[in-house]
Amino acid sequence: MTLRVLEVKSLQSDHFEESAPVKSRACVLEQFGQPPVVREFETVPPAEGEVIVRILAAGVCGSDVHISSGEDPRTPLPIILGHEGCGRIEELSGDIRDIYGEALRPGDYVIWERGIFCRSCYYCEVAHRPYLCPNRKTYGISIGCAEPPYLQGCYAEHIHLRRGAAFIKLGESDDPAVIAAASCSGATAAHAVEEARIRPGDSVLVVGPGPLGLFAAAFAHFAGAGTIIMVGKSYHGLRLELAKEMGASRIVLSDEGSAEERVGLIRSLTDGLGANVVLDCAGRPAAMVEYVDCVAPGGRYVLPGIAVPVGEWPVKPFEQIARKNVSLQGLWVSDTGHLLSAVRLVQSGRYPFGKLITHRFGLEEADQGLKVMAERKAVKAALIP
Questions:
Q1: Long-range contacts of the stretch 126-135 (C-beta < 8 A, 24+)
Q2: How far is Cα 154 from Cα 180, in angstroms, rounded to an integer?
Q3: pTM for this one?
Q4: Can you list the domains of the chain with their CATH numbers?
Q5: Res. 287: pLDDT tops 90
């Protein structure tokens, strides 16, 4: 697909002095299943309420691997990938303030809510659950780059944020690569633990030691969970070690023994009851069949790990759900409150989130970042434009 952006000669409004438009490089996915390519764009001056941020770091999310393969039905082409990012404000138009009401200025180091909400539908205005907004869009996932203002993803030197974006100011000591991960994995984990209603002393089973699972373990520990069991594979060495540092007290290997033996082990670690809460951060139907049997009667099974269609889940409604009075909780993305919780947890220094970032790449190496995430060679990769 040919990008029309390179044909645009001038996008400046009449009230701006004529000058050469600022150029910005971005990594563009032009075909699903193909490596993204670096293209140059002309930046568009921000309209009232809009902000242009120079990206300091962009997280390479596991979702980006699925998106680049064409598995997410929301994704148009061409698109600038990347929904995790943070950076410095370079230009803004109008009186724009952070979530605490403090005026924003060029040079401020910020992170923003990755979702764009309509703020007028039932879920935004009445239910106060904007993550369910039917009109929600996401930078780097559902907004293409064929039309102005083009720079709508984080795999870029700049991002052009639309009117109404929510901002959190960051501290100068915050590592951009680490903080960027809070915008997706961190915020989604915060939402999952909120929905799980973990009480002090609860037993929690976390399935999948990826960035989402590691954030979930830390949030569960912070919430006061008594026993946190992390499920991973024997080759997840570093991830499982990190899980212990995030609060996991027990590790169960999903590639050792039979499913019946693993279920029995998890029950033995939870006083014979099963886990009060299962946080399924893997979202694979085959695993879900097994781990729903690990929920204690009256417990909750929460699904933060599904971001694209994954097929069907065969479940026994009587034996696994109704008879045990189990709550099955779907979990879709997050809102600004969850983002703030994730940022503050990272900033607290209580958990070693810096160890999540095992690989850093330049913008032109985006394909390598996607590969190490797809092959699970990285715990978390980041692009540094």
A1: 129/335, 130/335, 131/191, 131/332, 131/333, 131/334, 131/335, 132/332
A2: 10
A3: 0.93
A4: 4-30+39-173+352-383 (3.90.180.10), 189-330 (3.40.50.720)
A5: no
